[in-house]
Description:
By secondary structure, the chain is an alpha+beta fold.
Amino acid sequence: VLGQSVLGQPEPTSTPGSGAVTLTEIKTHLNITATRYDDELQVMLDDVLGILEAETGRPLAVRDIVQAGEACMSRMVLHAVPCPCSTCAPHVTMQVLGLVVDGSPVDVVDRRLDGPVLSWCRTSAGSASTYADRGAVATYRAGYASTPPWLRLATKRLVEHLWQRTQQAPHPALSQVGGGYDEAAPSTASYLLPYAVMS
């Protein structure tokens, strides 16, 4: 499928733990010292990363992604790219690993990555054959090599939210406590994404 990406799905080529909060950090955040909850917390942590990837539309854990496009365009907009803002940029990994156009590899000197746009040309020796427009396939590595502050906080708060819902006794909505607000009010997905995580 042209333009297919793999956000929100576990990949065999994912780098475990990259760009993510660790189990130890989560246990410290929740003030849990016992090891009997480790497996359950790890499953929550893994699920939370996929949830946040789907919500942001960005790759969070570093992974290799394969995307197809049209060779005749000589360019392709990569769909799974990390946020380019100044807060995220120091944590981002974005690298083109390979590009095959019409069945032939494109040399590094003949391709260029400018933001999310990958373009290519035929300037180096050995690449003078005429493209038959059999398609272009790019393989690139994208995600967060280290954890930006917003991702660290969102991950901790979402795991905390899920942990409270599954492991602790029900507690009153925040709107009923000290004039706060109700996390469950605005949307059908709010049980999964409370205000603190969405913001």
